[in-house]
Amino acid sequence: MSEVRQDKTVKRDKRTSKAPSEGSHVIKGKDTAGKTKDSLSNVSCIDEHHDGTTMAVTLENTYQMGPRKRFPAHAALEILKDVLKSYLQEEKYEVDWSRQMTKTLCEVIRARVKELMIRRYKLVVLVHIGQLAGQSMQISSRCLWDATFDTFATWSFKNSSLYGVASVYAVYYE
């Protein structure tokens, strides 16, 4: 029983062990026999000192207050048009199908927009699919953002039995 525990501990240590980083340092410690040994300490988020105090790791400031390249909302709009038309053109509305298709469309749109390779923008993709049965629906959203850098693109699609509305929000991340 104890061998199994040791094997699990060794496997866990192998999975979680990290190579020392450039900022790591060597700490002299004592093992149970009283001999000194060298052990490596990794800096991940907080560096712990010998006296028990902790110091937060500081990151270099990029001094970049705005994006080098603005998010192309027109390119995202073209992606939305293409994806909604190609996936929903010949489909009939079904409840279970629409649940899965919503997830699929979100993933496809997100992947296609990420291919634009616009750095430092966080993406939020929303897709709504519903049945056309004479009802009306209003979709609204509110966001707290900087209007000079953040943007969005929305496109809606209809066929004989369903509608689809897709939105991509691009928020600049400093």
Can you walk through the features of this model?
This protein has 174 residues and is an alpha+beta fold. It contains 3 helices and 7 strands, in the order H-E-E-E-E-H-H-E-E-E. It has helices at 2-16, 73-88, 95-114; strands at residues 25-30, 36-41, 46-48, 54-56, 121-131, 151-158, 162-172. The strands form 3 sheets. Strands 5-7-6 form a 3-stranded antiparallel sheet, covered by helices on one side. Strands 1-2 form a two-stranded antiparallel ribbon. The chain has a two-stranded antiparallel ribbon with strand order 3-4. A hairpin with a 3-residue loop joins strand 6 and strand 7. Helix 2 packs antiparallel against helix 3 (95-114).
Keywords:
174 residues; 3 helices; 3-stranded antiparallel sheet; two-stranded antiparallel ribbon
Helix residue percentage? 25-40%
Counted beta strands: 7
Class based on secondary structure composition and strand pairing:
alpha+beta
Major beta-sheet overview: 3 strands, antiparallel
Strand residues, percent: 25-35%
| Order of helical and strand elements | HEEEEHHEEE
What is the assembly state of the chains in this entry? single chain
Placed side by side, the strands forming the largest sheet appear as 5-7-6
Low-confidence stretches: 17-47
* Rg on CA atoms, Å: 26 Å
Q: Mean pLDDT, as a whole number?
A: 78
TL;DR of this structure?
The protein is an alpha+beta fold and about 170 residues long.
Write the layout of secondary structure elements.
Layout: H1 2-16, E1 25-30, E2 36-41, E3 46-48, E4 54-56, H2 73-88, H3 95-114, E5 121-131, E6 151-158, E7 162-172
Antiparallel strand pairs: 1-2, 3-4, 5-7, 6-7
